[in-house]
Batch of 2 targets.
Target 1
Amino acid sequence: MALSFLIPTYDARLVLLSMTVAMFASFVALDLARHVHTADGATARYWLAGGSFAMGTGIWSMHFVAMLAFSLPVQLGYDITMTLLSWFAAVIVSWIALSVASRSKVSWQHIGMAGMAMGVGICVMHYIGMFAMQMDPGIDWDIVWLAISVVIAVVASFASLLIFFWMRNRKNHSRLAWQGAAAIIMAFAISGMHYSGMEAARFPLGSICRAASALDYTWIALLIGGATISMLIVTLVTSTLDARLQSRTAVLASSLKEANTALQRIAFLDGLTDLPNRMLLTDRLEHAIARSRRSGQVIALLFVDLDGFKTVNDSLGHQAGDQVLKEIAKRLSNIIRASETVARIGGDEFVVLVEAVDDRAALAVLARRIEAAVSMPIVLENDEVQLSASIGIAVFPDDAKDEKQLLAHADLAMYNAKASGKNTHRFHDAATTVSAAGLMADLRDLRYALERREFELFYQPKLAPNGTDMLGVEALIRWRHPTRGLVLPNDFIPIAERFGLIVQIGSWVIEEACRQMRAWLDRGWTIPVAVNLSVQQLRQPDLVEKITESLVRYGIKPQHLTLELTESGVMDDAEQTLELLNRLEALGVKIAIDDFGTGYSSLSYLRRFCVNELKIDGSFVRDVAHNDDARSIVAAMVNMAHSLNLRVVAEGVETLQQSEFLSSMKCDELQGYFFSRPLPVNELEHRLTAKEFEMRVATGLPQVLESAESCPCDALLKDGLEAVK
Ligand code: C2E
Ligand code: MG
Ligand code: MG
């Protein structure tokens, strides 16, 4: 039987070359497949096209070089068209392989089908290549070997795809070794297919090759092999460079992501405590409310305000204050459950958002735990402080219709807690929000109180130590509520401050005080008036202009108006206050520090502030009659004030003993119920006409008044308004 066929021989060098090409092509193919997988969009399409070309050429050239290694005792040659066709088949096969490899998710079915397609494609390439020899008579095929070659092609394709998918998720260093091993296996498989396919071909004796030519095929084989290997090297280098570029891009992308995360932290977290800030809380609250609307689940807000924090901050400094806030934040975070949110929304204000509320009792338990946690002593570097918390609780949907109202009602309930003595919690209650023990005022009413002219100024005389000479009055605001009667400032000023109404109310007070001074001036009475300013008015950008306007409008001498600022308010932002006080001094109005002794003034600031007067807080005055300490404190305050060239006013004088002691201490002015309560205008005027008090500044004939035009502050006003423009 052997005799009836031509005996083929193989050129060992070319066989080796074909194996090398196969191995190299496989290695590059695996690399490309990985690339097509990791690249995205247009880049992936380029890699798919370029990769199919390079890989197809590699496979084909392995096959072609192997064909050239083969020789028969007759001269051989290859039909160009058929040869090109077999190359084309190899490119298509590669395209199939790479397309499958680029999918991020593949099923067994996919790999099976793709393996089959690839295997068949390789066979098609191989056998087209064989037909390119155009043997005459035709090749006699051995069916068994033919089948074996097809099976090897399919199994090898399937195996290489499997190896690829398995390898895809390896780490870089181990991947290279695996890729090398896989390339060797694939090369053997491809070569195995080729040589078993060759085994299937029998060339009958006397066959001739119609495509035979006189070309030296060894050289062509070397040329094709060399060119292919060079092309594969270029492909590999490009692919590696691109991989680097991609990983650089990945690094860039990840640092961009980090930057984004950092930005988000800044936007949504409180810088000091790392707790969510107001923005994030609002966002979570909105979502919680939306969920609650769908599910009917109850949610709650606990508004936590620290009692006494300001004192710590003022007396121990901002650094200590920060430390306290951090500690409190930590404690609150430890108390709450993962599903709850604790946020810091202002200086010493924290809010806890509770979703899925069981009942009010559970909320009260949580509130008590917060109270307990806050009131544990906090150890600082050199000090130990102890605070307490006032907590207001509001529940959705019972207490509010949206997130804004829920927060506002929790806030108001917190105010209730403060009003009932602090260190406690209060639930929102529509009835008690209006007045905690009759003290809380309804915010909405307050909004309209100005328009409805419900505010009124009472005036309390300030007397010389002799108790009869009236040196001026302090204007104290009252709210004549249509149903509640006369409401005192402590019951509505804090609310006005909290809800941003104080600036408007404060402007009205200044205007009204000036109007009243003018009315008295017109009667011939020069009565200096002191008005109280709230901290927020100190931050009002046009405060100086507003005061100037009022003074000018009523032709009041600036030195007849005193502004009372509370000690803690002034120290709140001492540097900024300093600048304001300088402008006020330039205007000519007087400045008094109110409630002196209750805050923590820094003496150095007092010296720098252009202050005219200190008002010793009533709490010291109350104790002077029977407490030695109080006496020595008051004595020290008076001495200190005098040494700074400040006048001293004692507030809250209620008894003769207090009055006598304070006079002996050389207080410059006394004020208190002992002399007079704050009085409505007509009552004050009545007493003045009855000569109960002597107006020391307004003795004798009616003063000749400056007209508005000639007022010295006119120029200032002009300057001020120019500046505003
Ligand atoms: P303040 O400026 O320290 O005013 C003194 C307070 O002590 C007044 O209370 C006055 O009625 C009260 N008082 C006077 N003499 C005695 C006394 O002998 N014994 C006792 N126990 N109290 C006495 P009032 O009018 O309730 O005002 C309370 C606070 O409200 C004021 O304290 C002031 O800080 C603030 N306030 C009053 N009017 C205004 C205003 O127009 N604007 C602002 N921002 N705050 C105001
Ligand atoms: Mg005052
Ligand atoms: Mg006071």
Target 2
Amino acid sequence: MTTDTLFARIVRGEIPAQIVYQDDEVTAFRDIHPAAPVHVLIVPNRVIPTLNDASAEDEVLLGKLFLTAQRLARELGIDQSGYRVVMNTNADAGQSVAHIHLHLLGGRRLTWPPG
Ligand code: 5GP
């Protein structure tokens, strides 16, 4: 399992990003191509390539990704207007970076179903 993904380099500070939160387990940063006024990616610092690769030992970490999204939605002022949290998995969903990440999207009316 590679530890050298694009997002691992962002976590380690080797590639610049607009980091909005970081601790020992998770890092959140602005998406370079925002699809909404608020578009933040929340990643575990440790590489899990896809959701398919997560296991029971990742249970707390996966919960932390969601609770980080909840807190950032509040801090970024979209918790009441509304937001979407998405994790794409593999080709049909359009996953382009093999390091799981939640997209936190908000600040405009989002359409459903997604394309
Ligand atoms: P996926 O398509 O894998 O669900 O999402 C990957 C996301 O990473 C995309 O929304 C893309 O815009 C974003 N992204 C790709 N490269 C970079 C980068 O170098 N920096 C940042 N901040 N975001 C990136």
